[in-house]
Amino acid sequence: MADIDDDILDAYGEVSESELAIGDRDFQEMVVAPTDWTISVLTDLLDRQIIDLAPNYQRRVAWTEDKMSKFIESLFLRLPVPQIVLAETRPGRFAVIDGKQRLNSIARFCADKRRPLRLKNCEYREDLEGLTYDEMLKRDDLADAVGAFQSHTVRTIVIKNWRSSELVYLLFLRLNQNSVPLSSQELRRALYPGEFMTWLDEQTTNSPGMRLIFAQVPDFRMRDMEVALRHLAFDMYGASYRGNLKKFLDGVTNDLTSHFRPRRAQLEDAWLRYERAIETTFDIFGENAYRIWQNERFQPARNRAVMDIMNYYFADPSTAEAALPHAQALQGGFKDLCEGNAEFVRALQSSTKTEAATALRFEAWGHSLNNVIGAAVRPYPSDEYQIG
User: Full-prediction pTM beyond 0.85?
Assistant: First the structure.
């Protein structure tokens, strides 16, 4: 299986600025409050979860222990480090907009009692090599160094009084435009905390299907959570889609966060069907599952829009069962769509989010599936639930 990299999923489906509806008033009312917080203050806020790194944040850490150690050593050396940007989600609670891996490193070193970071490969402070924070606190000869570390300041920008999540997404996109692309699911996870997101995190972390799609689960960019959320959204709320994917996924997340307990049984059932859908797709397409057929070969990256349509129909147990004996014919039908229907390909690639393109790709694949298996498939869109 391929190593996880930027090509494991294509870029289609990420939030873009064109989806954001932001007015002058949003900018006028936003308050940007720069401050300098010490490591001691940041540690306290992280320890009390005032700064939300999400439960089990250690699962989705992008930095290696070597990189974390180098950052912590930089703080002991009192070197300037990049600023941290937070958004106040409610009074006294903050979501991370920029600087999550730096905060992860501080939390792991200073606040993690179960699996604290033990510094390694210290280049300039060899006296810190192999030590945890708690071990340093017990060393009299390191008292001055620890004191200087605790009082070292990090420039922290706090965004307050923002009127809508659109503005926070804009900040997120602008701040990350020159770095490794991050899934907007990280920000959604911070803006909509609660039992649903915790449940989704657990499901993807323990999912056999996700291990077929991703080489490493959980995925540190939360792309596993994002593709799963997309499926649940179209599977349960498809009729609410209006051509803005970001708004749709936010709305579904908000609704399921508000109604998680009464809908948990339905979510558990939907998840079992989702796992079956992924398994069925791989049984039929093998390692080419979720890849577009183009230029007489399957493309290297898996396509989110193909995931949506395959999983939507194969989540119906009767369709999945009827499809398995027709693997070759279904592969041929999908190739025919990709070769002979330019609008279908555009709906998978360049115009994925419009309401018309979304309906076109679902209906085209549903029609092809129906022709091959000779049985009716579920209609699109699903209208089990409505957002609101």
Answer: no
